[in-house]
Amino acid sequence: MAKKGVLPDPLKRRHLLEDKLDPAKARAIADLYLEEGRANEALAFLVKADARDRLEELRDRAVEDGDPFLLRHTCEALREEPGAERWNATARAARAAGREAQASDAERQAHLHQDD
Fold it and tell me: Which residue range forms the structural domain that includes residue 42?
């Protein structure tokens, strides 16, 4: 287990994710990653904790931040499709932040999910 405020090294992280882990501990580790701005790594621990509420928050944050990668993976973890509306919102946020490649990726996904 990671000490309070200290992230596990990559090997320890892998072992934590492979072994049985108390949901409260998994959430605590996820919080450490989120504090460090490492949402993609936090995602794995939120999945391990079966923290649907926190995954939904992370999904919404991905939209607000214009992060199509994080949106895709949080929706996979939630077993839901983002839908065209979320993809378009993600594209707008990415474009507003000057990240054209991510905006284009999100727009392509929105086009593919128009009927969702």
Answer: 9-50
